[in-house]
Amino acid sequence: MSETPPNTLQYRFDGPEGAPVLILGPSLGTTWHMWDRQVPELVKQWRIFRFDLPGHGGAPAYPAGSVRDLTDRLLATLDQFGVQRFGYAGCALGGAVGIELALRHPERLASLALIAASPRFGTADEFRQRGVIVRTNGLDPIARTSPERWFTSGFAAAQPAITEWAVQMVRTTDPGCYIAACEALAAFDVRADLARVGVPTLVLVGSDDQVTGPAEARTLVAGIPDARLAVVPGASHLVPVEQPAAVTDLLVRHFSTAWQPAFDSATGQTAIPATPLQPVLTAAPPQPVPIAEIAPAAPAPAPQSGTRPDPYDAGIKVRREVLGDAHVDRALAQADEFSGDFQEFITRYAWGEIWDRPGLDRRSRSCVTLTALVAGGHLDELAFHTRAALRNGLTPSEIKEVLLQAAVYCGVPAANSAFKVAQQVIREETTPAE
């Protein structure tokens, strides 16, 4: 594991070698140990494969900036052992990997369980803001608040050892890999693709999950044709840790009865899957009884035409990624008959044609933009482009160096005003929430 190459993941196997492979995928900030209490029961039927995200749990720090990249690394790791077909259960970011597998590699997936998952995790602004906090302050602020996001208050108070384990697990994660994972979640949005998930799917969520709760779970169930929902009472986001027996029971029931046979290339047919789970699923006593329900599937999205993409489409995407959804939504909402053409103009040409060019990365473009705004005395735009620079990966120290450089070539008075604006923005953006 210490020699894990950049295109694979740190892993471990448990269970009999000849058994079908079941993969357990972790959440952001956790390690494969979040599944420790499921493994003893699951290895009775499956060979369990667990992996760590890059920079988590001592894994090599090769950042992966997209869910697709993580999925490709997982498959490359499995290919080393000839594992071609498997079941998959993933929590949160691990669940996003499961959806990506179902969409891009359905031939390898026998059955799927999505735990504390969502077709879109919050907003891109929220995750990029978290990246700014980590880049400026390190992981300690995120680590200290992780129990509040992961567990119910009663569980955290009653289990101080597990609470401290959670804090230390986040604190020892590589910051660069954590930020890259935040970027991966910021860009993840498969709401329009759920109807293409073609494997039997269990969607499992804690009743008290405030991160990706029952509402997000029901969106998954409504969109995936063969999906059913299990809500585990008395659990928050990290439900496999908080209610291990209930989660184990649900996983055993799902993967025992909903394991889709492999496609037969000789006949061109797939065997009929096993009978779906019953609408009500029970957990092993004395755990609370999970509630399960089946929701109707959503219609498949209409196919898109194969025309050359309008620069506006790329521009609005880049504009949102750099400036944030809130800023862009506000600007577009304020547009009227007089200013609407200008908003379309800058989206199409400034953001679609220039910011989307591959010749400079976004960090470099932020440096150029900040300097130009200082030179022109455009302090209003300097404020939101300082926020954009932080989102694009510049640290406060690097922004300071840009403004010092600008002082030499643009003038001290201009830089003096710029420092006041940038200082206020940096304080607002990098101060962790209490």
TrEMBL record:
Single GO MF annotation: peroxiredoxin activity
PANTHER family: 4-CARBOXYMUCONOLACTONE DECARBOXYLASE FAMILY PROTEIN, CARBOXYMUCONOLACTONE DECARBOXYLASE-LIKE DOMAIN-CONTAINING PROTEIN
InterPro entries linked: 4CMD/NDH-1_regulator, AB_hydrolase_1, AB_hydrolase_fold, AhpD-like, CMD-like, Decarb_PcaC
Pfam family for this entry, one: Abhydrolase_1
Residue intervals of the AB hydrolase-1 domain: 20-242
UniProt EC number: 3.1.1.24, 4.1.1.44
Record carries keyword Lyase: yes
Matching Gene3D superfamilies: AhpD-like, alpha/beta hydrolase
Record's keyword terms, sorted: Hydrolase, Lyase
Organism: Streptomyces canus
Domain Carboxymuconolactone decarboxylase-like: residue ranges: 341-423
Name used for this protein in its record: 3-oxoadipate enol-lactonase/4-carboxymuconolactone decarboxylase
Presence of the UniProt keyword Hydrolase in the record: yes
